[in-house]
Amino acid sequence: MALEAWYMNESLEDQRLPHHRDPKEYVPLAKLAELGVLYWHLDSKNYENDEELQKIREARGYNYMDLLDLCPEKVENYEEKLKNFFREHIHADEEIRYCLEGSGYFDVRDEEDRWVRIWIKEGDMIVLPAGIYHRFTLDAGNYIKLMRLFVGEPVWTAYNRPQEAHPARKEYVESLAHRPVPLEAH
Ligand SMILES: CSCCC(=O)C(=O)O
Ligand SMILES: [Fe+2]
């Protein structure tokens, strides 16, 4: 199955639950593309020798990479980090994550400020554009190993919402306004 994404319900229950609406409302890849979210499915078992990954990195200039194994034994201030990941924020640059093991949820806001939950599993690689409001949580499986990529020296600074005056935010909002209107909306 391809990447699954859906509109979230408003319930304040455990963030690691799926939070589907009733009935479920899935969000197609084309919609994610309109929001500027990019997606590839790669062979995560072969990440060290993967030509496809290499091509993406070369094409997009992702010369930096590291691995983030999200478990309490390997991450300093684990609980605090997870808490910060789930605070709605933006970055001045793209956020590029490739899931090597486990799974988790990247939530992004759509153009009408609704939460879209993107379920990342082994082999899924996504790029969130600079300026998009987002957050991250582990799912009920409670474990993910991610590759983080970046153009040049990495900057992980998160700017918590609201950030309407931030240049990356302004540019992102502007890019949404100029994206072609999908056919079904005519
Ligand atoms: C665990 S990676 C995703 C969390 C996030 O949004 C970030 O690192 O900025
Ligand atoms: Fe982020």
Automatic annotation (TrEMBL):
Keywords: Amino-acid biosynthesis, Cytoplasm, Dioxygenase, Iron, Metal-binding, Methionine biosynthesis, Nickel, Nucleus, Oxidoreductase. GO terms for biological process: L-methionine salvage from methylthioadenosine. Fe(2+) binds at residues 89, 91, 95, 134. One of its GO terms (cellular component) is plasma membrane. One of its GO terms (molecular function) is nickel cation binding. It comes from the Eukaryota. Pathway: Amino-acid biosynthesis; L-methionine biosynthesis via salvage pathway; L-methionine from S-methyl-5-thio-alpha-D-ribose 1-phosphate: step 5/6. It is a peripheral membrane protein. Ni(2+) binds at residues 89, 91, 95, 134. The keyword Transferase does not apply. It is an enzyme of class 1 (oxidoreductase). Binds either 1 Fe or Ni cation per monomer. Iron-binding promotes an acireductone dioxygenase reaction producing 2-keto-4-methylthiobutyrate, while nickel-binding promotes an acireductone dioxygenase reaction producing 3-(methylsulfanyl)propanoate. Signal peptide: none annotated. SUPFAM superfamilies: RmlC-like cupins (SSF51182). Its cofactor is Fe(2+); Ni(2+). It catalyses: 1,2-dihydroxy-5-(methylsulfanyl)pent-1-en-3-one + O2 = 3-(methylsulfanyl)propanoate + CO + formate + 2 H(+); 1,2-dihydroxy-5-(methylsulfanyl)pent-1-en-3-one + O2 = 4-methylsulfanyl-2-oxobutanoate + formate + 2 H(+). InterPro entries: ARD, ARD_euk, RmlC-like_jellyroll, RmlC_Cupin_sf. Gene3D superfamilies: Jelly Rolls (2.60.120.10). Its main location: membrane. Belongs to the acireductone dioxygenase (ARD) family. Catalyzes 2 different reactions between oxygen and the acireductone 1,2-dihydroxy-3-keto-5-methylthiopentene (DHK-MTPene) depending upon the metal bound in the active site. Fe-containing acireductone dioxygenase (Fe-ARD) produces formate and 2-keto-4-methylthiobutyrate (KMTB), the alpha-ketoacid precursor of methionine in the methionine recycle pathway. Ni-containing acireductone dioxygenase (Ni-ARD) produces methylthiopropionate, carbon monoxide and formate, and does not lie on the methionine recycle pathway. This is Acireductone dioxygenase. It comes from Aristolochia fimbriata (White veined hardy Dutchman's pipe vine).
